[in-house]
Design brief:
The chain has 9 helices and 8 strands. It is of the alpha/beta class. Strand 6 and strand 7 (191-199) form a beta hairpin. The structure holds S-adenosylmethionine.
C-alpha cells in the first residue's frame, strides 16, 4: 500500500496527522465530548489503555492539565512523553498497576476515567468479546477506587452477545448509562462506548481490587426483569462529520490541497518492531506452499 492510500481510505487517520493527534481515536473522544460534555468541570482524569496517547492529548488540552499533571495515563506499552500527563506503564488487570494508579488519587479523587482498551483481536468473536469485557471491568474496578461521587466513566465496549450483563453491572454504579457510537468509529466495527455519568455506588459498597466484577457463575442469557437493562443507543458526531466507512478524494471538499503528513508520533517500541527488522533483512519466515513442504509434512496435511 502506498503511503497516501491510507489517507484516502481513512479520512480520520489523515485528519489526525494533519491536526497533530497521535491516533485517529482522538476524534472518537472529541465526538463523545460534543454529545455528552464529558470535560465540563473536569480537572483530574485517568486515561486507561492510553497508548499511543491521542486521548491523553485531548484530555490534557481540554481540561487544562498541561504542566500540572492532572492526567494519569496507563498502558502496557511505552508511550512517548506528553506535557502534563503522568505515565504509568503496566497492565490494568494487574493489582500492582491498579494500586499504582490509585495512589495518585488518594485524598483527591478524579472527575473522569476513560478507557479505550482493546485486546489483541483473535478473530474468534466470543474470545475477543470476553477479553474486551475483562478490560472494561478491570477499568471499572479502578474507577470505583478513584472516581469522586458524580464522576464520569467512559469505556470502549464490544456490542456482543453478553453486553446486557455489562450494562447491568455499570448501572449498579452510575445513575446514567448510555451506549454511544461516534461517527469516527467504523459502522463495520462492533466497537461502541459506554458513557456512564453520575458515579453513585450502592450504599455500603467497599471497593475491592481483589474481586473481579464479572461473576462467572452468571448465565448471561437469563438476565430478566429489573436485571435486564436496555440502555439507550446514541450516535454522535453531527451529520456533517466525515463518514469513517467512506473513502474520500485526497483534495477534501473544503478546497484544501492534499499534502502528505507523516504520523505525529510513531510508536516508540511497538511489539511488531522485531518482525519489521527481520523482514527488512529478509529473515522473516515465509509461509510455505504445500509443494515446498517436505514430503513427510505433505503426507500429514488434511485432505
Ligand atoms: N486511546 C488510545 C489513543 O487515543 O491513542 C488508543 C488505545 S489503543 C486502541 C488500545 C490500547 O490498549 C493499546 O495501546 C494496548 O496496549 C492497550 N491495552 C490492551 N490491554 C491492556 C491492559 N491489560 N493494560 C493496559 N493497556 C492495555
Amino acid at each position: 500500500m502506498g503511503r497516501t492510500s491510507k489517507d484516502k481510505r481513512d479520512v480520520y487517520y489523515r485528519l489526525a496527522k494533519e491536526n497533530g493527534w497521535r491516533a485517529r481515536s482522538a476524534f472518537k473522544l472529541l465526538q463523545l465530548d460534543e454529545e455528552f460534555q464529558l470535560f465540563q468541570g473536569v480537572t483530574r482524569a485517568v486515561d486507561l489503555c492510553a497508548a499511543p496517547g491521542s486521548w491523553s492529548q485531548v484530555l490534557s488540552q481540554k481540561i487544562g492539565g498541561q504542566g500540572s499533571g492532572h492526567v494519569v495515563a496507563v498502558d502496557l506499552q511505552a508511550m512517548a512523553p506528553l506535557p502534563g500527563v503522568l505515565q504509568i506503564q503496566g497492565d490494568i488487570t494487574q493489582l500492582s498497576t491498579a494500586k499504582e494508579i490509585i495512589q495518585h488519587f488518594e485524598g483527591c479523587p478524579a472527575d473522569l476515567v476513560v478507557c479505550d482498551g482493546a485486546p489483541d483481536v483473535t478473530g474468534l468473536h466470543d474470545v475477543d468479546e470476553y477479553m474486551q469485557a475483562q478490560l472494561l471491568l478491570a477499568a471499572l474496578n479502578i474507577a470505583t477506587h478513584v472516581l469522586k461521587p458524580g464522576g464520569c466513566f467512559v469505556a470502549k465496549i464490544f456490542r456482543g452477545r453478553d453486553v446486557t450483563l455489562i450494562y447491568s453491572q455499570l448501572r449498579v454504579f452510575f445513575s446514567t448509562v448510555l451506549c454511544a457510537k461516534p461517527k469516527s468509529s467504523r459502522n463495520s466495527s462492533i466497537e461502541a462506548f459506554a458513557v456512564c455519568k453520575g458515579y453513585d455506588p450502592p450504599e455500603g459498597f467497599l471497593p475491592d481490587l481483589t474481586k473481579p466484577l464479572l461473576d462467572h457463575s452468571y448465565d448471561f442469557n437469563q438476565l430478566d426483569g429489573p436485571t435486564r437493562i436496555i440502555v439507550p443507543f446514541v450516535t454522535c458526531g453531527d451529520l456533517s462529520a466525515y463518514d469513517s466507512d467512506r473513502s474520500y478524494p485526497l483534495d477534501l471538499e473544503d478546497g484544501s490541497e492534499y499534502k502528505y503528513t507523516p504520523p505525529t508520533q510513531p510508536p516508540i517500541s511497538p511489539p511488531y518492531q522485531e518482525a519489521c527488522t527481520l523482514k527488512k533483512k529478509g529473515r522473516l519466515a515465509k509461509e510455505m506452499r504445500p509443494q515446498d513442504c517436505p514430503i513427510s509434512t505433505v503426507d500429514t496435511l488434511p485432505q
